[in-house]
Amino acid sequence: MRTLLGTSILASILALVSFYAGQDPAVANAAPPDQDVAIGSGFRLLRLAIPAEGRVGDILRKNAQISSGFEVIDRRSIPAALVRSASFDKKAWSDIGAETVVLTDEVGGQFKFRLFDIASGDKPVLSRGYAANDPLKAANRFMNDVIEYYTKIPGVFGSRIAFVRTTRSPTVSKNVFTVEMNGESPVSVTSNRSLNILPSIGPGGQVLFTSYAKRNPDLWIGGAGEARQVSKQPGLNLGGVMSPDGGSIAVTLSKDGNSEIYTVDTNGNIKARLTNNKAIDGSPSWSPGGNQIAFVSNRAGGPQVFRMGADGSGAARVSKTGEYNQSPDWNQGEGARGNMIAYSGRDASNRYDVFAVDGRSGKVVRLTQNPGRNLDPTWSPDGRMIAFQSSQGGIFVANEQGNNQQQIARAGSTPDWGPRAD
User: Fold this and answer.
1) Which of 121, 243, 275, 387 has the least C-beta neighbours within 10 A?
2) Of 33, 73, 44, 37, whose CA–CA distance to 404 is shortest?
């Protein structure tokens, strides 16, 4: 789902398999961005003070920073009297430049959180209590409430991102992990000496991935228990991604000699063949309503992003800027966000960055312009944030304009952002 499938230089299935196993993208020239391409612009952040100590305070501050909505005041700069005070002194907080304040107390086995907005007066504008036995969950839930207070849409803290981590001793292996979107609570999905690649999180939290554990690149699914094989057709079973309703899996199969996109059920039974083209087609990504699929094809020469109906009808090219575009991810957000398809593309300086195209207007926005390679974008479940892998240091998350980039995993590739947490 996250890695390029299909270039004119892939002359054999063997070359395709080696690419999916983690080799760098092949070098190709790309046209320079046109006038529609621009770096996302920023906006003014609210100055937020969180004096709480301990793990719950650390998580609250980290979440506020990642949320892209706040400038978090350094706790060390807050006067000791304010840090210790259980009451809210509007003038004192205003004097240090705070515009909003979160106070935390632990009472009767609960964290009591209060959000104060300086402009709204002396009373809390939001008050919540959560069990104190899980500071991470409590801090996540309250920050989601804070985001909902300001934006009318809950935050997505607690949601998880799947990715692949490579080890090279004693042999090269790739294993799938998930981590919360703030980098907390890592979990191993696979732990073997094989190649486990291209993870995708389904609507129920299931993790689909391709594994060479049985020698053939088969599609597997993992969850709370052990993983099981889903599709084990001869040849490639790559990049499986579950539909929004969980009823179908779009996957790339090469059982008939060429890489084509099919849908299968959760037991691997083929439901339909969606593409039938001499080109190499792959990297499927569902639209929010599940009625369309974005994918990558080299049918136009170099790899480009296309879309088609969920039944394979009406295939049309979406990316028209540049000659080398890959790894589409369809924004699952509501409204206009649901038109946006992110992808990684190569610019005129032979550097990979993350772009997004509006599927209706065709307008392209450049989301990153960082050193190194920036690849494999994946939208948050609400469509207001994006994660990607960078050669500068693992997995990063940013806002939907590509600003406020925050590292959440020091090493990793091909991230996929899962659904909201329960």
Assistant:
1) 121
2) 44
